[in-house]
Design a protein that fits this description.
Helix content: 40-55%
Oligomer: single chain
CATH class of the largest domain: Alpha Beta
Radius of gyration: 29 Å
Number of domains: 2
Strand content: 5-15%
Distance between the termini: 69 Å
CATH topology of the largest domain: paralog of FGE (formylglycine-generating enzyme)
Mean pLDDT: 84
Length: 544
Amino acid sequence: MPRYSWFKALPLLGLLVTGAVAQAQDISWREKYFNPQPAEGDLNLPMPCGGGMTFRKVATPNTDGVIGDVSVVLGQEGSDQPYLNGLRRAFVSGAFADEDGGARGYFYMAKYELAQAQWDVVMGDACPEKEPRRRAFVPAVGQTRLDYQRFAEAYTLWLMQNAPDALPRVGDTRAYLRLPTEEEWEYSARGGLAVDQALFRAPLPPVPEGTPQDEYIAHGGTSSTGGKLQVIGSLRPNPLGLHDMLGNAAEIVGDPFALVRHGRLHGQAGGFVKRGGDARTPLQDISSSTRFEVPPFDILSNTSSADRFTGTRLVLQGLAITSPDQDQALKDGLDQLARPDDALANAASEQEAMALLDDMSDEALSELTRTRLAVIKETLNRGMVERNAQRDQSIRLILTSGVLVCGQALRRYLNALISMLTIQHDLDLLEQEARAAGDQELLNEVLAARREAAAKLQEIEEKAKADVVEYANLIEGLVDQYSPVLLRKQIDFIYPAESGRGRERASCLALLQDHIGARSVAGYSDLDEIADDFQDLALSFAEN
């Protein structure tokens, strides 16, 4: 693939933007090439030479106003290389909000990997003679991270100078293009808010039942691409409508690499990071947490590192501080986060304790100060006891909710089982009689009843699947927030009451404890295993 020097991109960055590049402000490329799978919500930005690039919204709503963000757990529990992709807590947010007060806190991620045709029109010195064809929309690989950063800069400046209204506004500023952060990339690769919390933690985004991952991920297996890069949009999208986040070309992100150290990134910055695996990577080695360190320089050839299976994609984001007036709003937002929740019974005592601490800051150590320290300690202890009691009560309520959802799913599976064993059996007998007697009218009635029963059975099964997801979400929240020791303590606390309410409640609580343990070990809830356990339990009830 051709490599263009940075000098050829300079006309795009200077004050004099001339020639065919400057004149092409509308998209004239065929959408089937640069956006081969259009979808509602796509944002198409123009490019030089009549080109286009498509972006998708990635929502990160929060309740903390101007200083809010979304807490996510990245990485994978039980990883063979925890220093590469172990669990760590991170935070993600978006700069954009709809003017009508609708969606807020979102950013835009490129729908597809950066394609060679898109690279050429931004980094080349002239427009191609002909509109690029489909084969020109393979990922733009073989560049360095600095090259991709320069592309983002050049493309942003072209938009600012040629199509400024295409860039969304953020306060007094406009959005700009850059490489994604690791947090933005992995949050998007996992499916963001488009998937339930329990599914977000799984190694791969969810796919419809019976659909192979080969339809979503271009990997190195014989059932997939066999090590060949695919044209963008050849496969199905993830739940956010993004294509090839995993597989095809690995993707460089903007952050420097850092090791994972027990829940956080290590303080030493290393090389650069590529994510997602590529068309040579075996499927079993690809997950949303897959990340590798790449040295910026090749010490053997004494050149910058580049790889023919590594590309990138862009994000459209905005500045964090977008106006002078935002200063006070940010200060107020931080102050509000530091205040205790007024809805809590211990909020007043905490405020008193904080007021005492403020008084101490201006005083020298004295008997009075020591007395106040004792008061503070006692006040905080009382507050902690009350807060822990509320925490334990919340855990018990969530556990009880899990038991109730389990019971609801069991009853749905029992209804489905009864439908199969009785109604279907009766209909089979009636159909045999109608066919033997040659009674077409009766046969039509039987067939209509069979279709109605099948539809009803399908409805029951779909509701049972929804129960499984709701149940897994409850487990996800418990395991994410509380330790296994604390959860086991609360399970033991509610067991006598639940077992006293019948076999179903006791069995569901036992299952819940098993599923919490499995989630803690695996790092995600296996929905198929949960559904199988529910069905097995329902069958045991039916047999007894």
